[in-house]
Amino acid sequence: MSSAPLGPSPGSGVCAIGPDLWYREEADGTFVVGLTDSAQRRAGPLAHYRGPEVGRSYRAGEAAISLESEKWVGHLGLPVDGTVVGANAEVERDPGLVNHDPYGAGWLYRLRPRDPGAFAAGSGTSR
Amino acid sequence: MWRHLDLGRCEPLRAQAFAESVAESVAAGEVPNTLLTAQPAAPYISLGFHQSFAEELDEGFLARRRVPVIRRVEGGGTTWLDSDQWFYQFVYRDEEGGRGGADDLVRLLAAPVRAARELGLPAELRPPSDLVVGPRKVSGNAGGDWADAHVLVGGMLGCADHRAMSDLLRLPHPAIRRIVRTEMERWVSSWEAEAGEIPTYGAWRDRLVGALRALGLVDARPGRPAATEEKRFRAETVPRHEDPAWREIPPVPRRPDAPDRRLRIAGPHGVVVWSDPATGGFDVAVVDGSALREAYRIEPGTVGERFEPLEVGSRAFVSVGERLRTSARFD
After folding, report:
1. pLDDT tens digits along B224-259
2. Residues of B numbered 13-32 whose beta carbons fall under 8 angstroms of chain A's beta carbons: which are they?
3. Which CATH superfamily is domain B2-158+198-247 in?
């Protein structure tokens, strides 16, 4: 009997929001956001990543980040309205971190949501 | 049913970026999914979406040639484009022409392959996105999502201007430029070089449309740009491309161990350059996939054609191979 390989473990406190993103609430009320393992597998090996502008407020869905894999550029919006308070510069230098460690070193940005309950309202099942 | 907009011979920005205005109309459902074809009337440089103007382009070349630089919404590397190349662009809504990404490249590029073969060029697809004859590239392709539509762009190389292709690149030493040009001559070819005779733009365009229909991929019927697309192109697309903030995005900071230059020539073939601050010289690797084919040590005083590859197996060759293994590959 064969079994499908398991992806990396997301760890405790990590929840999915939408088909592509995960989040984890931090003690200071901000939320760390990243690409899920299934999303990075669909995207393939990332060659380029540009993160959101730190300090800027975005509307949910507004294009904030861009990714490039196998010569195709895609854009992702923020999952909820909010202000970006941090970005993972290491991922811009080495986008492969998203492929290798999507729930750890490959996190994308940190967000302070306009409505603190927005993540919980929009999230799916706990991962 | 798709719409076919034949832009014909037109100025570079229209050839490259009118599809962005079309994408907005396609995404809004105002017009059908659209195939665009075009032939740029003048030379220009196209930067991939994530590429930095400052890191990629040679200032001297830009000053001499005064060609426009257009940052496209699709991925891939820096390209030299001129009237010896013919473009196709597929603009489509999600799920109607595909979901975007590498699968769409593979599926839709079957049509340019078929059109080329019908016209006597024995092209085939080298995934994810090159059309090749043997190991040599004759067409580059890339994609991107724009305004909630997918855009796939590609071009057939009628003739290849290897000198312009290599001279436009920002490179730290003339000897390295010479190496890059040699690799381009080796791996980037053209319709003229492979088949001898180049079809007319019109003959190629009609074959492409026929191949898309014959393969059951796209049934495109001649159409015209909507007034809103023309208006949006003038009012939004052109100003965006004239804005330095769009064209000249800042470079992403590099890892400390990253090479100074990592150039993909075509498919698995590339050139990697590391500087040596201690000597002012450079190590250069000529790479096929993950294999080091040639290595060079360019000293500050190296001039003209007087430089030779390092002896395979020599200590210096092995040293370049070690740097390559830890920081750059093209497979």
Report:
1. 999 999 999 999 999 999 999 999 888 888 887 789
2. none
3. Bira Bifunctional Protein; Domain 2 (3.30.930.10)
